[in-house]
Known about the structure:
This protein has 14 helices and 21 strands. The chain has helices at residues 28-42, 57-69, 83-92, 129-138, 156-164, 186-193, 226-235, 262-273, 290-298, 310-320, 345-357, 361-371, 385-396, 439-455; strands at 18-21, 46-51, 74-80, 97-101, 110-117, 150-152, 176-180, 200-204, 239-243, 250-253, 281-284, 302-305, 324-326, 332-334, 340-341, 378-381, 402-404, 409-412, 416-422, 428-435, 459-460. The strands form four sheets. It has a six-stranded mixed β-sheet with strand order 1-5-4-2-3-6, with helices on both faces. Strands 17-18-19-20-16-21 form a six-stranded antiparallel β-sheet, with helices on one face.
Amino acid sequence: MNSTTGLTPISCFKAYDLRGRIPDELNDEVAYRVARGYARFLSPERIVVGRDIRLSSAALSDAVCRGLTESGVDVYDIGICGTEGVYFATFDGGFDGGIMITASHNPPDYNGMKFVREQSKPVSGDNGLKDIREFAERGDFPAAPRQGRRRQLDTTEAYIAHLLSYVDLPKLKALKIVVNAGNGGAGLIVDKLEPHLPFQFIKVHHRPDGNFPNGIPNPMLEENRASTADAIRAQGADFGIAWDGDFDRCFLFDERGGFIEGYYIVGLLASVLLRASPGGAVVHDPRLTWNTIDIVKSSGGVSVLSKSGHAFIKQRMREVDGVYGGEMSAHHYFRRFAYCDSGMIPWLVVAQILSESGKALSELVGERIGLYPVSGELNYRVPDAKGTISAFEARYAPQALNVDRTDGLSFEFPEWRFNLRSSNTEPLIRLNVEARGSEKLMRAKTQELLGVLKSHGAVAADH
């Protein structure tokens, strides 16, 4: 308790969600207070609660449900699921909101929460999260007129049916697919989908295990990709998929075991989804853009730029009624999924593409990689992020064809472009570079930019 303000600080609130170490940052008491704060902010009647497979998730879920019911809210507990399970249950059942207990790709001793309101609209940052934090820290919870009830709700059948609606089952071929759940929850859904699909699944780290015996489920880390790539090559699979812990992101590998940058999957999915929605809008982030813009235009769609981050993408999707939205970070958003991100829909659509085209995945994305080679996101720690970005602007803006400030700074030149953005929470700068048809130019410009970064004291950082 802070004797000056009367608040009990809660340190695990982040920009988009809540995440912290168990039990010093996040525990049952904190979870209870946050749930009371959520109920005070939203004044809901019916709320969905789900949880991931972490060892601490069941107890945190109980605390959240207690906080909600004591606030007079009826809770519909959908049990173990992915984050998209809460999204689906909330919009499909017409609930007032949802809370997912998850720490996604963080280490085993972490946990957290993600929040949505009606129609699975995100609750984050200035859009409610600060209010929830304030209510939770203050601990000023008015007596509820009634005690809410906690009910169990099984949404699996409806959720699986919704996922299958994105593919034309009779046209699917008997593909061999490596699936790596990273001992998270994705394997549970693959098992539910399996009887409906003609695919042969090669299952890697499939069993849910909150101890994460094969490492934290984060395929963005290169050292976590080998198990998927090796299985693809050993089994002669058509492609592979790896997920993070709450499977709101999926990462794809081609038939050779090659990891595919999420950027190229955005273009691939956009081209297919626009067939059913001619002239539709596709929302994308500004880090890498040329490939997406080119594909969307040639597919008869309209490309719409948005600041990075799920809350911004979802808001932009709603504003323009986007058919699809994609980020290079492997978040993919779908209009029919309440504009929310899913880690299951993308790979199903890719399987449909492979089945109908008869082409290998490396062939489908290889041409695009050649047309628009990229550096991949490079992360560097800097003593002064703001000063460093100002130095880049002074150096590159005068010669740029265009400077965009949608998210950080994007500088565009005739044959290459780059985006530089700083983290909201730490002294970190993220750099992305792309070129037109020349990997040599892309690499040369990347080295040039890294030289400038290092002259300002930058040191390479992990993702």
